[in-house]
Amino acid sequence: MKYFIRNITIFLVVFSLLLIFIFGINTNSLSISLERDYDQNFFKKKRYFSKFIHKNENINIVLGSSTMENGIIPDSLGPKWFSFSNRAQNIYESYKFIDYFKDSVKIDTIIIGLMPFDFNYTLSNPNVNFRLIKNGSFFIFGIDSITFSKGRILSIFQKVKEKNYPTIEKILRINNNDSGFKISRDVFSSQGFSGDINRPSINLDLINNIKINDADKLFQGTKQIPNFYYFDLFNRLADLKKITVIYIITPATKYYYDDINSGGYSSTWKNILDTLLDVKHLKLWNYSYIDSFDLSYFTDKIHLSYDGALVFTKMIRKRLDTKD
Fold first, then answer.
1. Are both 22 and 74 inside the same structural domain?
2. 73 and 171 fall within a common domain
3. Does residue 86 share a domain with residue 196?
4. 31-51, pLDDT tens digit by residue?
5. I want to staple 63 with a disulfide (CB 3.0 to 4.6 A). Which of 94, 150, 173, 299 is the partner?
């Protein structure tokens, strides 16, 4: 028994040293870097934003999820605009971001895109029977029950493992991408633009024949009477700091609104829009339907292509210039 324990101990020590050695070879470091090992775009964007606010006394910000990340090019709005919009970013995460930087720089205007999951009845309960939509990296702006969980710790270590340790696919050089086409993921400008600039438009008429309802994912967790708690947190903070906020519904295809109707979410979506306009009397720019936007401006049912983003950003810039 004594020899067995000794051999197990030796094995574990050698195995641990091997893991450390592989990690050090791959990273030239023995410490975990969130930018390098977890979410490169997010933390690169945070670094750019820190430099941006040091150069500017007054700034404007674009916030929201991937529809805003892909749909608005901040550089085209002007030199004072920065986009801190990211995949699956909900309004509570946008709130945490603004709350973190509220005393570091004067924010004049925020343009923020709204999605159905911003009005979920909860963003914190891990026992819900649906997947909570959140970016997951905003814990660096403050840890709480929404921004961080045990699952997030596991996610970080999973990403570290995937990036730095060999898998069967890597060893055998198996490429899971049959087309060989790779989407560029990067922060392409010092003003935070990180849209998928080379993602091609696709034939949405063919995609629509696949019976997948995109609205099911975006509306999971919403109820017919929407929850405005997280929205109100963000809006009150903006009011407190005297920030002009423009809420935006980004362009989407007719197929997405077909999904809303067929999924039974039309009354929920109507209640959200009616509350924003008729009860809260907020500035809402609703671009749900744009006749001039044909399907070639989209890469799927809700995301604009880079060509679509150029056109949409120009529309936003013109409207900002007229102070509508």
1. no
2. yes
3. yes
4. 454 544 457 899 999 999 999
5. 94
- CB burial readout 283-310, b (16+ within 10 A) else e: eeeebeeeeebebebbbbbbbbbbebbe
Q: How many domains does the chain have?
A: 2
Count of alpha carbons within 13 angstroms of residue 42, beta-carbon side? 21
Q: How far apart are CA 288 and CA 258, in angstroms?
A: 12
Q: Determine the structural domain holding residue 2 and report its residue range.
A: 1-27
Give the long-range contacts of residues 74-78, CB within 8 A, separation 24 or more. 74/189, 74/191, 74/192, 74/193, 75/189, 75/191, 75/193, 76/310, 76/313, 76/314, 76/317, 77/313, 77/316, 77/317, 77/320, 78/317
Contact assessment for residue 48 and residue 192, using Cβ atoms and an 8 Å cutoff: yes
- The contacts of residue 145 (CB under 8 Å, 6+ apart) are 124
> Cα 199 to the chain's mean position, in Å?
17
Is residue 16 located within the same domain as residue 149? no
Residue-wise pLDDT for 91-127, tens only, equals: 999 999 999 999 999 999 999 999 999 999 988 766 6
| Site of tokens 């990036």 | 163
CATH code, domain carrying 316: 3.40.50.1110
Max CA separation in the chain (angstroms) = 82
Q: Name the pTM for this structure.
A: 0.82
Q: How many Cβ atoms are within 10 Å of 221's Cβ, its own excluded? A: 21
